[in-house]
Amino acid sequence: MNNLFLQLPTQTPMEWSLLLATALLIGMSKTGIQGINMLMIPLMAIAFGARPSTGIILPMLCFSDLLAVLYYRRQAEWKHILRLLPAAIAGFGLAVAVDRLVPPAAFRILLAGCLLLGLAIMIYAEVKRGANRWAERRWYGPVFGLAGGFTTMIGNAAGPVMAIYLLSVKLPKYAFVGTSAWFFLVVNYLKLPIQIYAWHNISTATLMLNLCTIPFMLIGALCGIYIVKKLPEQGFRKVIIAITVLSTLILLL
Question: What's the domain count of the chain?
Answer without folding.
Answer: 1
